[in-house]
Design goal:
disordered N terminus; 314 residues; 16-stranded antiparallel beta sheet
Length: 314
């Protein structure tokens, strides 16, 4: 029987965060979230669009934006169902014009991914009785970015985000034999710490269709998906006395192994249609290539992801 526990978790309460980098958390700033997470072609002189730094070229005012996130999640399987609530930091940003209408810049701190799960499975095995398997994970990655956007001529804008991704992703697995007294339990701990620069770019092209109506086409992509990382792991046998683990034997221990993590490449195409000064209709199509994801050459069971987002603003 598989049970799901999520009591003391911060950032994520999803068992699916066990895979890859965890839950990819950032869905844009408030205006974009309200329109389904659009970003490739979203351009507004009074709000920040972190997804496409090309939009910074048209920023007209100094804009400060910060937010938190709260969610209620139902976790269920064939045996049980539980509701969990969760709250965490969403983002912090500041953007400003340098040469109004031509060059804008911004910086901020946003979450990149989060892990948070606690799973237990108990299986009866011949000669061993009930064997308990536990899996838990924690941690997350954050991203500090500096972006610049430039408007070239009347129609074209280009931009670049230079980011530093940092944080740790922690995983633990253990097996216990509650029906046996002469067998040690085993735990495996793993930690991957990332710290490196990451670059993404954007392009937007504006077309005046009529005196009041405007069409914007946008594209975003990633320049450097591979980041440096440090790997640690520790496997040991232990005896359990109450809630205390008494280490009996070290099976293996690896510390400060330098390597890299290849993040999924991401691209997005989008359009924005502005009708006068009131209506704006936006659509995005994005995809992520998880087939090239690697963590110290390890391959996870992940598939490419695709997303269509659409929204309107009045």
């Amino acid at each position: 029987m598989l049970t799901i526990q999520a009591d003391a978790q911060v950032g994520s309460v999803s068992p699916y965060s066990r895979y890859g980098l965890g839950d990819l958390r950032f869905d844009g700033f408030a205006a974009q979230i309200g329109m389904g997470g659009v970003g490739a072609a979203y351009a507004d002189s009074t709000t920040v669009n972190f997804y496409n730094p090309a939009s910074l070229g048209g920023i007209a005012y100094t804009v400060f934006d910060a937010a938190g996130r709260a969610e209620i999640i139902n976790l269920s399987n064939s045996m049980t169902s539980n509701w969990r609530n969760n709250s965490s930091f969403a983002y912090l940003s500041l953007a400003f014009p340098i040469a109004k209408g031509k060059w804008g810049a911004g910086f901020g701190l946003v979450p990149f991914s989060e892990k948070g799960y606690d799973l237990e499975d108990q299986v009866p095995l011949p000669g061993l009785g009930d064997v308990s398997f536990f899996f838990d994970g924690s941690g997350g990655l954050s991203r500090f970015y500096i972006g610049n956007g430039f408007t070239i001529g009347k129609n074209l804008s280009i931009g670049l985000n230079a980011s530093y991704i940092f944080g740790s992703l922690n995983r633990s697995a253990r097996v216990e034999f509650p029906d046996l007294t002469n067998v040690w339990n085993t735990r495996y701990n793993q930690s991957t710490s990332l710290g490196d620069f990451y670059f993404d770019y954007g392009i937007q092209y504006k077309m005046k269709l009529t005196k009041k109506n405007e069409l914007v086409l946008g594209f975003t992509g990633v320049l450097k998906p591979e980041v440096n990382a440090v790997f640690d792991s520790y496997t040991y046998n232990y005896e359990k006395r109450g809630d205390v683990e008494i280490v009996k034997d070290t099976v293996q221990k690896t510390q400060d192994v330098n390597g890299s993590v290849t993040l999924p490449e991401r691209w997005a195409l989008g359009f924005s249609y502005r009708i006068g000064n009131n209506w704006q209709i936006i659509g995005d199509y994005s995809w992520q290539d998880w087939s090239k994801y690697r963590s110290f050459s390890d391959i996870d069971s992940l598939k490419n992801s695709y997303r269509f987002s659409a929204g309107a603003m009045y």
